[in-house]
Amino acid sequence: MKLKVKLRPRLLAVAELVPSGGVVTDIGTDHAHLPVFLVQERRCLRVIAVEKSRGSLRKAQRNLRFFGLEEMIELREGDGLEPLKGEDAVETVVISGLGGKTINRILAEAEADLFDYKRFVMQPMVDAEELRRWLVSRGFYFPREKLAREGGRFYEVIAAEPGEERIEDPIIFELGPALMRDRDPLLIPWLQAKLKHYERLLQALARSRLGTGDPRWRSSHYRYTRIKEVIRDVRQR
Fold first, then answer.
1. Which residue in 16, 107, 171, 190 has its CB near the most CB atoms, within 10 A?
2. Is the Cβ–Cβ distance between 83 and 77 less than 8 Å?
3. Are residues 160 and 206 in the same domain?
4. What pLDDT, in 10s, does the model give residues 123-159?
5. Looking at the DSSP assignment, which residues form a beta bridge with residue 173?
6. Residue 15's domain spans which residues?
7. Counting beta carbons within 10 angstroms of the beta carbon of residue 185, is it exposed (0 to 12), middle (13 to 18) or buried (19 or more)?
């Protein structure tokens, strides 16, 4: 019986947004758990796992030997999409476990080639709103998004493909158009957690020197109010 890797909820949610078939690259692969899972579950033909840390590369190599997948998963050292070549025929790019600004940088450095790929699957640890804004401004839309909960924390997973995404309400950049559209199973608890975050922030800002006159208080109050309205609307549907 062959050993199989088990993914935690965060990476499992990432894997669920990777289309079946084709070649996948995992940028910042760390221990290569995601590539091993994708190959073992026959979700892709092969994986190019990219990592800039030599220490992580050694750990990934040990894992590939352990699971006997050295021929199906290729490890490459480098930063972002730079190690990839046109002949690799990569269709899906996965970037998970990094901040949204870092993901923005990786994409911006390869901006001329972004439309060569069919799908990006991203899991920003922070700054998901900023990442969505950047992608929409560059001609991407969000066919799917997913929430995961692990260790008391929520994680957003974003799938982006070339196309037009129309967002009329700015709050949707924070809440995720596909999360709202598809009514993710974790949507209500995630929104409630956001509401509590803004409640604490508003209380802290109200006690600050500028009080409710602080522009940050007004911005946070707007978001707090809109999220309350969104929760009400979601529950009514």
1. 107
2. yes
3. no
4. 999 999 999 999 999 999 999 999 999 999 999 999 9
5. none
6. 9-166
7. exposed
